[in-house]
Amino acid sequence: MTHILGRTAKPSCRGSRLNSNVRPHMEEWLTIITGSALIGALSAVLLSGRTAAWVSGGLPWLAFLTWVLYQEYAVPPPEYGGASMWPVAVLWAGTIAAAVGWGTYRLVRSVARSVLP
Description:
Strand content: 5-15%
Mean pLDDT: 81
Structural class: mainly alpha
């Protein structure tokens, strides 16, 4: 707590240590979600049938797996070391990426069917 003019004020989150640690991870999530949505939308527009559904879910998952394995094995590890959690990351974030891609595919496909004759 900080005393300002005799009053006690709570510290702001802006510029705090918590905010600086969270922000880079949010940018990664934004990249994962945006990329997955773009793949889902493009597969709905450019592909047809079951192939489009498989590509819309499978390609974001494989892209995320490729990125995680690159980060794990090609980028030098940080100084502090630690346990490798890439299987958990692929399980959770890869599944979310696939779900966003497939959901965007379904959304774009249903909007296209309702708008186009």
